[in-house]
Amino acid sequence: MTTVDLDRLARFVAVVDTASFSAAARRLGLPKSSISRGIVGLEQAMGVRLLHRTTRRVAVTTAGAALYERTAPLVAALQRSLAELPEREEQPSGRLRVTATVDFGAAVLADIVARFVARYPSVEVDMRLANNVVDLVAESIDVAFRIARRPLGDASFTARKLGTIDVQLYASPAYLARRGTPRNQRELAGHAWVAYRGGPALRLDGPGEAFVLKPSGPIVCDDMSFARQALRAGVGLGILPNFYAEPDVAAGLLVRVLPRWTTQTGALWLMCAGGKHLPRKVSAFREFVIEALRSGPFAAAG
User: Fold this and answer.
1) Boundary of a domain, candidates 32, 60, 83
2) Are 34 and 100 part of one and the same domain?
3) Tens digits of per-residue pLDDT, 58-87?
4) Fewer CB within a 10 Å sphere, N or C end of the chain?
5) Has the keyword Transcription been applied to this entry (predicted)?
């Protein structure tokens, strides 16, 4: 009877699932070299070649396909069972993979994550900041923060609304002192703007009506951090999400213009992998984040 190492088998399944040694390494949180050694060891134990490797792709052999078909469901079931076992340690531990947009991560999560790891030193947080939509399953993400009008469907993730996000108008006190503060939406057209490249016409929803205009220069950019700095420098008016601008408002660096008018209202969603049985590291992080966001722009979290 052939004895098969379950760790090697899990690495083989991950490679076939992702069609990549690198992606399998990211999923399992292991070095790529460990994945390669695991596959070689499994092939030696089985006495057959399981994968064809080239510089650009990984292909499954006939024997590999047969092994995957028979064992992948068993490996997945075993991993789920182990994940759902009560943790023996009182403190959360292990690697926690979190994804968020670059701006939200820098403006909000950096401080929260720093305080979280200080409280739970046995947890290592692996932050994946990206403005594109990350494949949560392929990247083995534990917690995802998504900004959208409604929760993004994924049967393997539970979603919780943390609060609303309003995109509003801001300018520096120096700019408003120099050019005057707009008293209504009709006065916006005569002002200088920090606009976003390729951005749509700006729709402002206010008391009883909506107003649309197309912001124009003197600065056009494609980065929110740049826009924030340019607004603080007194270039003109611009739009920012409230979570990003409110610290500057509190510090007196920016002023909210036409505060009763908003645009592109959305919501912040926290998505956790694991369904009803969350690993301790995930549940601890979720509760830590919810508590941290009870004040400020997310005070309305439900």
Assistant:
1) 83
2) no
3) 889 998 898 899 888 888 878 766 655 555
4) N
5) yes
32-46 vs 6-18: helix crossing angle, rounded to 10: 110
Tell me, what DSSP letter sits at residue 186?
Answer: G
The total domain count for the chain is 2
Structure tokens at 184: 């209504």
Strand, coil or helix: 266? strand
**Would the pLDDT of 300 be above 50?**
no
E strands, the chain, in order: 51-53, 58-60, 94-100, 123-129, 143-148, 157-171, 193-196, 202-206, 209-213, 218-221, 238-241, 255-257, 263-273
Distance between CA atoms of 206 and 262, rounded to whole angstroms?
Answer: 7
The answer to whether 132 touches 125, Cβ cutoff 8 Å, is: no
Question: Can you give the length of the chain in residues?
Answer: 302
Q: Which two tokens stand for residue 48?
A: 């057959």
Q: Give the closest residue to 106 by CA, choosing from 283, 225, 246, 280.
A: 225
Task: Report the 10 Å Cβ neighbour count for 112.
Answer: 17
Do 222 and 111 lie in one domain? The reply is yes
Beta bridge partners of 266: 165
Structural domain of 110 = 89-302
Identify the pLDDT of residue 183.
Answer: 87
Q: What is the pLDDT of residue 286?
A: 92
- What CATH number is attached to the domain comprising 61? 1.10.10.10
Identify the domain boundary among 18, 51, 83.
Answer: 83
Beta-strand ranges (E) seen in 47-142 are 51-53, 58-60, 94-100, 123-129
Domain-located, residue 297: yes
pLDDT tens digits for range 5-37: 888 888 999 889 888 888 888 888 788 888 888
Q: Name the pTM for this structure.
A: 0.62
Give the model's confidence band at 120: pLDDT under 50 very low, under 70 low, under 90 confident, else very high.
Answer: very high
Q: Within this chain, do residues 194 and 124 fall inside the same structural domain, yes or no?
A: yes
CATH of the domain at 282: 3.40.190.290
- Of the CA atoms within 13 Å of residue 169, those in its CB half-sphere come to 25
